Amino acid sequence: MVIFAGQGDARRSMALLWRSADSGATRTGPGPKPGLDVDTIVAAGIAVAEEQGMAALSMRAVGAWLGRTAMALYTYVPSKSELVDLMHDRVLAELPTEYDTDAGWRPAIAAWADDTWAFYLRHPWVLQVSQARPVLGPGEYAQLETVVRILDGIGLEPLRVRRVIAVLFQFVRGMARVATERRQAASATGVSDEEWWTVRTALLAEVAPDFAERFPALAALESHAAPAAVDDVREDPEDALPYLEWETKEAFRVGLELILDGIDSAERSGLGSPDHSTPSAP
To answer: To which H or E segment does residue 130 belong?
Structure first.
């Protein structure tokens, strides 16, 4: 399920995100204080998404969570589209925005990536909000600002820094999506990862007895990469993660190191600096 952000009324959505004077987020004037406000509705939307998933999110469901009708919400939030934007931007505020760069940019980016990975695993519904069209709210910009500050002064031209940042965000997001889908697969299908792989690898050997001849490079890699026992490859024998989830986390760690190695190499070589001639990307 993919939800595209920014589908509601652009002016109202942006006003609510940034709490501009004409957003209607706060009510003033005589009379009793209203029992609802934008923040309360957004918090309820997040609660519904956390507990029931994005497929269950609707203005009616959020109203029921608050003990109100859906109609009672529309004065504050025009529709589900604006609500999704607000929910996404609000939950991002949970992430840290300050990292110690005294030891350099690399450990700071690694810490940011670990925090962001853990954030997605806590809030898997966020991964269903597409980044093809960003929300453009303060929470989203705060995260971008954080990474830009960490990478400030690494010696790459601004356009290349923007692309590096895009790679970092999409790498963390993509690997977290795999990890969350792994967690969700067992409950959604009623079949554990271990059972699924055991049955299908046995069948693969049966239906493709010539697998190693047809795919020799892959077969050779698998024969050398497969551990004799799961605990043989775990750095921490007390690691309680299921093996395949642990494998995904290790792939995340290795992939991040390779990306950081590439940034480090570019920084040291001066690649991408304003006086270094490089071909334009297509």
So the answer is: strand 129-130
- pLDDT at residue 102, as a whole number: 95
pTM, rounded to two decimals: 0.86
Please name the fold of domain 3-88: Arc Repressor Mutant, subunit A (1.10.10)
CA–CA distance, 245 with 222 (Å, rounded to integer): 18
Alpha-carbon distance values, 249 to 123, 154, 171, 229, 232 (Å): 17, 27, 12, 18, 16
Q: Quick one: pLDDT at residue 20?
A: 87
Third-level CATH fold of 93-194+241-272: Tetracycline Repressor; domain 2 (1.10.357)
Give which of 124, 127, 90, 89 is closest to 2, Cα–Cα: 127
Over the chain, what is the mean pLDDT? 88
| Band (244; pLDDT cuts 50, 70, 90) | confident
C-alpha closest to that of 196 among 161, 244, 255, 148: 244
278 closest CA partner among 160, 163, 155, 167: 160
Q: What are phi and psi of 6, to 5 degrees?
A: 70, 35
Query: In this structure, how many other beta carbons lie within 10 angstroms of the beta carbon of residue 163?
Result: 13
Q: Where are the domains of the chain?
A: 3-88, 93-194+241-272
